[in-house]
């Protein structure tokens, strides 16, 4: 698959995250919550499928550069940008306390990605993602 096509798929997966009816409450099955669930699932599938080599490289770099703040800064800066983008979506779908909710979703995603890439390549990530979004929406 060509890089441009992969990038297009990633952009499309990101669009799934966007709530179709802003301001609507989230119960995990509502329109906005479903968009978040679908977007997270699509991104996770891409990160462990066509983008698996990039994902493994990114995690390897994070681990390797953890002890060198200066060299690791570009990766951490990119991660913070992704966190802010995700937080805006969490706010838009109506999940309370968006900062800890975003961190929880991103930590879950990291765990699921690592698990799928290293332990269980057939892991169905959707049930865990659905449960997390519903739990955060209810809290």
Number of strands: 0
Low-pLDDT regions:
20-29
**Count of runs of 4 or more consecutive helical residues:** 6
Computed over alpha carbons, the radius of gyration is: 15 Å
Beta-strand percentage?
under 5%
Largest sheet: none
> On the 0-100 scale, what is the average pLDDT?
83
Termini gap:
41 Å
Shape: globular
Helix content: over 70%
Element-by-element helix/strand order: HHHHHH
Q: Structural class of the helices, strands and pairings?
A: mainly alpha
Structure description:
By secondary structure, this protein is mostly helical. The chain contains six helices and no strands. The chain has helices at 3-17, 31-48, 52-65, 69-92, 98-118, 126-138. Helix 1 packs antiparallel against helix 2, helix 2 packs parallel to helix 5 (98-118) and helix 5 runs antiparallel to helix 6. The longest helix has 24 residues, at 69-92. It is globular, with a radius of gyration of 15 Å. The model is unreliable at 20-29 (pLDDT under 50).
């Amino acid at each position: 698959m060509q890089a441009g096509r992969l990038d297009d798929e990633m952009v499309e997966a990101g669009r799934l995250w966007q709530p179709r009816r802003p301001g609507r409450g989230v119960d995990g099955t509502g329109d906005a919550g479903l968009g978040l669930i679908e977007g997270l699932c699509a991104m996770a599938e891409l990160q462990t499928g066509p983008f698996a080599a990039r994902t493994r490289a990114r995690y390897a770099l994070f681990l390797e550069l953890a002890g060198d703040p200066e060299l690791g800064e570009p990766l951490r800066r990119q991660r913070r940008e992704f966190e802010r983008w995700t937080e805006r979506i969490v706010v838009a779908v109506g999940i309370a306390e968006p900062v800890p909710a975003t961190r929880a979703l991103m930590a879950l995603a990291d765990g699921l990605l690592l698990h799928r890439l290293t332990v269980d390549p057939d892991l169905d990530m959707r049930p865990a993602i659905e449960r997390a979004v519903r739990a955060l929406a209810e809290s």
